[in-house]
Amino acid sequence: MLINELKEIIAKVEQLKDEDQRAIAKLLEEELQWDKSIQSSQTQLSNLVSEALEEYRKGNTQAISKKKFVVMEQKEFDKLQLLAAQKTPPVKKLSLVAGKKLAYKLIDKWAKEK
Description:
Number of domains: 1
Order of helices and strands: HHHH
Mean pLDDT: 84
Radius of gyration: 31 Å
Largest sheet: none
Distance between the termini: 86 Å
Structural class: mainly alpha
Oligomer: single chain
């Protein structure tokens, strides 16, 4: 049994050309398939989460790091990396004399720590 809103929409769709009706039918079918797919994947994901939590509670997991990660397409990552590289300030160049002074200073510091 159809609800009234659906009956009204179907009556309007019946007024359309055949090709438009086919396009709408295809969209509805794709939507229904998508819903099934999401429900199935949600069930699988829920099962994996439960399994992972159980492993965690049992102490069978190992922390890798406390860093946060983001998943993105390689193309987007490459753009982001290029943008970051362009914003990096140039390395300060030292004259030979200044570089020599810095080297001696760092060597002295290192020697005192030993």
